Amino acid sequence: MSDLFSDAASQRAEALAPLAQRLRPRTLDEFVGQRQVLGEGSALRRAIAEDRVRSSIFYGPPGTGKTTLARIVAASTGAAFEELSAVSASVKDVREVIARARERLGTSGTRTILFLDEIHRFNKAQQDALLPTVEEGLITLIGATTENPYYEVNSALMSRMQLYELEPLTVEELRTIVDRGAAELGTTVGEAARDLLVVRSGGDARSALNILELAAETSDGEVTEQHVDDAARKRPILYDKASDAHYDYISAFIKSIRGSDPDAAVYYLAAMLEGGEDARYIARRLIVHASEDIGNADPRALLVAVAAAQAVEHVGLPEARLNLAQATIYLARAPKSNASYVALREAAEDVRARGNAEPPDALKDGSYYGRRLGHGQGYVYPHDDPRGFEVDHLPDVLKGRTYYRPSGSGEETD
After folding, report:
1. What's the burial of 152, exposed, middle or buried (CB within 10 Å: 0-12/13-18/19+)?
2. Which of 191, 263, 347, 352 maximizes the CB count within 10 A of its CB?
3. Residue 23 lies in a domain
4. Which residues contact 72 (CB under 8 A, 6 or more apart)?
5. Confidence band (pLDDT; 50, 70, 90) for 322?
6. Which residue has the higher pLDDT, 93 or 333?
């Protein structure tokens, strides 16, 4: 009786499942996207087809197919397949899976594949519990994560797993998925509406299908831009202040300023602010950039950056966004020079290589006690004798070295 009710519940659940669940690919031929890791003849595609997938981590943003790939592996393997979510699983759950895997291998020689969703949510103790079994091959571990595994998964476990990075789906790939969804729902989607839906999904196939399903429910047969706009209330912003996005966007921001591209720089600024990045962090990076990449080509750049940082402290968000935008555009348009950065770097290399070389006696303290040791003797005071401007003031062992080489850009001339 219980089996009868379970079967009926499963059938009803499948009929009521969200569109994204109903359209989840079951084979590699149905899978859309990720050609960089699943193209014809690729190592992962062949491993799945030949049932020899090794312990792996599927890493990428939501809606890129991590769980779907794991389910395809489950459908194509001769091994037993177990699934846990790191959000709710405990060390006890992991040990029970390991015990069953050991029993299967001992009694029937059957391998076990464990799919661990959200593996980054496992703490060190939980990850350590998996390590011996992965190392000896008792289980094949497939982990899925939206977080950079090099931050979240311990290095011992990472060294025993293959890493596959999945990317946000392209516009064409999302269009294909939307067309499949429209066919499943028996609705039509205008080209403009489809393009808007693709943009609003942010490269996330699940989000695209969820938006489409809701838009179709409010339409009269044809999904329009208005239906999509009404259904897509969630902003397609993926930004994690503690992980990859934090570093990737600030890197793109600084490189855009360095490359004198104000449009790209202000875009990345907007992306970080919309994603909730700390405005003080952005301001600090602008201050560093003003000296590192602009320097004396435009000395005012540092003043502008410091003023923006002060505005962030005194005015706060959201108004200080304007101050950050002004500073960003000023720095992007300013002439560039890294001469100060290079000079400091080369001087520091000499200090590390030679230690703190003593200044010449003529430059040492010439006060009463210094004079008794001969310090300060022979010093040429430039204001009285122009020859003082021609003296090489470096330590004797470094005479002739040149650290600062003016770039000739902007105000930084010889």
Report:
1. buried
2. 347
3. no
4. 25, 26, 27, 28, 31, 48
5. very high
6. 333
Give per-residue pLDDT as tens, 280-316. Answer: 999 999 999 999 999 999 999 999 999 999 999 898 8
What totals of helices (H) and strands (E) does the chain contain, helices first? 20, 7
Distance CA 265, CA 270 (A): 9
Q: Give the range of the structural domain holding residue 102, as residue numbers without chain letter.
A: 34-165
pLDDT of res. 264? 93
288 assigned to some structural domain: yes
Cβ proximity of 394 and 358 under 8 Å? no
Residue of 144, 139, 198 lying closest to 169 (CA atoms): 198
Looking at residues 89-95, what average pLDDT do you find?
83
| Residue-by-residue DSSP string for 171-238 | HHHHHHHHHHHHHHHT-EE-HHHHHHHHHHHTT-HHHHHHHHHHHHHHSSSEE-HHHHHHH--S----
For residues 251 and 318, membership in a common domain is answered with: yes
List the CATH number of the domain containing 188.
1.10.8.60
Q: Into how many domains does the chain fold? A: 3
Mark whether 200 and 257 lie in a shared domain. no
| β-sheet bridge partners, residue 59 | 145, 165
Please tell me the predicted confidence (pLDDT) of residue 259: 92
Q: Is the CB of residue 269 less than 8 Å from the CB of residue 285?
A: no
Which runs of E-coded beta strand occur in 34-76? 56-59
The CATH number covering residue 309 comes to 1.20.272.10
Are 45 and 153 found together in one domain? yes
Q: What is the pLDDT of residues 93-118, one digit of tens each?
A: 888 888 898 888 888 888 888 898 88
Same domain, 78 and 103: yes
Q: Are residues 148 and 223 in the same domain?
A: no
**Residue 1: its pLDDT value, please?**
47
Q: Which element (helix H / strand E) includes 346?
A: helix 339-354
Which domain CATH number covers 131? 3.40.50.300
Q: How many CB atoms lie within 10 A of CB 272?
A: 24
